[in-house]
Amino acid sequence: MTPKKTVPAKKTTTMAAKKKSDSPKQSAAKPSPKAAKKSVSAPLVSENELLMQSLRGMRDILPDEQPYWERVRRSLSSAAQEYGFQRIDIPTVEYLHLFVRSIKQGTDIIDKEIYEFQTRGGDRVALRPEFTAGMGRAYIQHGMSVLPKPIRLFSMGPVFRYDRPQEGRYRELWQGDFEVFGEADPILDAQVMQVAYRVVHELGLRDIEFQVNSIGTPESRKRYEKALVRFLESQKHKLCQVCRDRLSTNPMRVLDCKEDKCVQLTAQAPQALDFLDDESRAHFKSLLEYLDELELPYSINPRLVRGLDYYTRTVFEIWSSDREGKKYALGGGGRYDLLIQELGGEPTPAIGFGLGLDRIVLEMKRTQVRPHEFAKPRVFLAQLGDLAKKKSLRLFADLEKHGILAAESFGRGSLKAQMRVASRLGVEVTVILGQKEALDGTAIVKDMVSGTQETVTQEKLTDAVKKVLKSNVALAHPSHTGVAHSEK
Ligand code: AMP
User: Fold this and answer.
1) Average pLDDT, 10 consecutive residues per value, the chain (488 residues)
2) Confidence at residue 472, expressed as pLDDT on a 0 to 100 scale
């Protein structure tokens, strides 16, 4: 096959927010004088330089870490199933316009963090910075409005934000996402919060608390924003520079600022709850009653507005805290009753939330939660000589077909070295296939617990292995006679 000629990367593929190099080298203490001379916008890594490093803020999740991730993935999937959420997978890349229309300019996500580029065909596209917009698009595109409501969808995957990387903040992060379309009743708000709680609680995370607020309808929000701006304008000199700029672009974001002086000032600012219309107030009141009924731990947080523009009424986050009282946001969401219509669909109230899986894994490690335990092989397949190696490939497949988890070392290695691997793995049975056995059509089954061994024909191998495994289980648990736990 002739390999296709590779096309060099076009210059048109630019990252919108690219001000500094993405090179991990940038974090090195001393930039080289050569690099220092370059302009700020010039990448520090030339296109020809091949760095064996992932991009800044993006990382490999190595096999060692996977047991934590596996536990999270399983917990998400089982919660989704139990609460009737159907899995959907949506593309990682969408038209840029979808995100701009949903999240809106003036938000950090759109103004600073979106990874956008132009395709070779000239389309302006973006890596998804969150799930909701894409889920809404899929809901409309596939005519889901005709399905019995509410429609519950669940997804999981990476999202991308060009944020300043640090511990717990990445440019490629993973989220589990739950969305409910077609129901405005606050009982659904309470139920999605229950799902979020179910996931983190089942993972063994404690010290969890929801932060809830209601930002009302666009009208009540406008009234609130006006009052907030009036208040903040009068005290503008007490705000940080970023918040002064936010006053004209997205004043509600000032409430999110972590700068001490802004926190102090906004503590006295007007609160969204005081500006709610009657219906939103009743909606919020009912939600709180449901939360009480479910005994979910929550605090009303008047500063919580969330950074996205599409929210109406309920907004919430799920926080974990450490002994020193430091808070970690594990996820957040809210109601977006107008978004589907704004995107061109039928009026469809909706609510959803995203859980940050990287942060959840960090919390699991911090609080020493047990990761998932993958089943361990109970059998090792050792072989010696070319013919034996060839035969053991089929024997391995036979064992696997019968649900017996086996390990092997098909690479070169003496029998002694292979037996060492077997005992390091702690297997209960080693199957040995030497040159003689390969020619005879037999195999040696060695019980690693009792040390006894027998020669059996290769046809009878799986039965013989099963027998030993079963007798080991019976020895360890005299009342058990069933199939061993690591057998599929
Ligand atoms: P958001 O919708 O921005 O509140 O994000 C939902 C959740 O995703 C947050 O509560 C975090 O747990 C997680 N998250 C957000 N941004 C990042 C990031 N840059 N790196 C890692 N996790 C993040």
Assistant:
1) 38 39 47 40 67 94 97 98 98 97 87 96 98 98 97 98 94 98 98 98 95 95 93 93 88 88 92 96 98 98 86 96 88 97 97 98 95 94 93 94 93 87 94 95 95 96 95 68 36
2) 81
Find out whether 83 and 226 touch, Cβ atoms under 8 Å: no
- CA–centroid distance, 356 to ligand 1, in Å, is 5
Q: Do 63-206+297-366 and 379-487 show the same overall fold?
A: no
* Ligand 1 near 358 CB (within 6 A): yes
Atom 18 of ligand 1, residue of closest alpha carbon: 169
Residue to mutate, 166, 169, 310, 353, ligand 1, most ligand atoms under 8 Å from C-beta: 169
pLDDT of residue 21: 59
Read off φ and ψ for residue 288, nearest 5 degrees.
-60, -35
List helix spans (H) across 302-455. 339-342, 357-366, 386-401, 415-425, 435-440
User: Separation of 486 CA from ligand 1 center, angstroms?
Assistant: 36
Query: Is 354 near ligand 1, meaning CB less than 6 Å away?
Result: yes
Q: Is 319 near ligand 1, meaning CB less than 6 Å away?
A: no
Q: Measured from the CB, is residue 161 less than 6 Å from ligand 1?
A: yes
Residues in the chain: 488
Q: What is the model's pLDDT at position 23? A: 58
Within 50-162, residue ranges assigned H as helices are: 66-82, 96-103, 108, 132-141
- How far away, in angstroms, is 374 Cα from ligand 1 center? 28
pTM comes to 0.86
Fold of 379-487: Rossmann fold (3.40.50)
Domain residue ranges of the chain, discontinuous segments joined by +: 63-206+297-366, 379-487
* Domain formed by 63-206+297-366, architecture: 2-Layer Sandwich (3.30)
pLDDT given at position 6: 36
> Residue 476: what pLDDT?
67
Q: Which atom of ligand 1 is nearest to the CA of 333?
A: 2
Ligand 1 pocket, mutate which of 61, 171, 175 (most atoms under 8 A from CB): 175
Task: Establish whether residue 437 lines the binding site of ligand 1, counting it when its CB lies within 6 angstroms of any ligand atom.
Answer: no
Nearest ligand 1 atom to alpha carbon 329: 10
C-alpha count within 13 angstroms, C-beta hemisphere, residue 170: 19
Question: Measured between alpha carbons, how far is 55 from 52 in angstroms, rounded to an integer?
Answer: 10
Q: Are 347 and 144 in contact (CB under 8 A)?
A: no
Q: Which residues, 6 or more positions from 73, have their beta carbon under 8 angstroms from its beta carbon? A: 156
